[in-house]
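Please describe the entry underneath.
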Amino acid sequence: MKRRYFMLMAFGALCIPLVAQGADFSYAQYKTLLEQHVKLGMTIDGIAAAVMDYSALATEANKPDAAYSRLLTELAAFDPASLGFPVERMAFWTNVYNIAAIKTIVDHYPVDSIRSWKIQWLGLPWNRKAITVGGREYSLEEIEFDQLVEGFKDLRVHFGVNCASVSCVDLLAEPFRADRLDRQLEEQGKRFLADQKKGMRIDRNKSTVYLSQVFKFDKKHFEAYAGNAVKFILPYVSEADREYLQSGKYDIEYLDYDWNANDLKNAK
């Protein structure tokens, strides 16, 4: 697909074209998959989540003409090096992570969690090969850290990746795209941090800020690239919460993390 885009925007310290000339990956199959199988406005274990119909996808995995099967085939044949600009690559690998997490559940379905022993006997699926892109197999950890966090040094990717679990940042019900990536990540971040059960909760009476364990899991990079998680989240919270966080007069603790799969069969 030939495109012409010349407008620039700031991504951290980089100046990145909104969209570039050249060939981008077609997200048509992924868009169809999300439209058909992601359900919004649901809860699991009392926590709001965008849920996935993994049962239907497991059935589709056996049908070569289904959107799910065609998407995996297209990814396996696509050369990510053909993406010429950082914003395209960042959108691409964020989508790939989410597709790989979905595939991890589908490949072993039925499972109750991405940390099921059926996926990895120690409950640590991050280093197992999960998806093929351009003829090479990638693990979830390689995608999240090698390609995204360390590749772009943009911590907003944590607002994009979904680990197929209830307490993760919600799976976006549309593909991430280069020409709207900034807006998509900003909206994801604000929604996540406004959710007191999985993003952030402030207890002023106890002088305690409860953060998602997402910020604990990758504490190293939040400290290296932003100073700490609190400094990073300031643009994504309300003015009142921002003033409180800037005061520094509180302790940091972490919210419980629900690793149950964001599976439609468990949703209400």
Summary: The chain has one domain: 8-196+257-266. The mean pLDDT is 93.
